[in-house]
């Protein structure tokens, strides 16, 4: 849960500074955050599947 809060905080910071950054930098930062959230989602889903299969 702490990771999700950190991701939302980083997203809020990036959205706040997005108006001052070039578009390519903003897109790269958005892709990094999206990738991090995707990895988090997949790890949580795998963990949930392992727990329910026992």
UniProtKB/TrEMBL annotation:
The chain crosses the membrane at residues 28-44. Keywords: Membrane, Transmembrane, Transmembrane helix. This is Small hydrophobic membrane protein.
């Amino acid at each position: 849960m702490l990771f999700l809060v950190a991701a939302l905080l980083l997203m809020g910071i990036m959205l706040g500074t997005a108006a001052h950054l070039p578009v390519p930098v903003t897109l790269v930062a958005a892709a990094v955050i999206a990738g991090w959230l995707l990895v988090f989602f997949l790890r949580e889903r795998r963990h949930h599947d392992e727990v329910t299969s026992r």
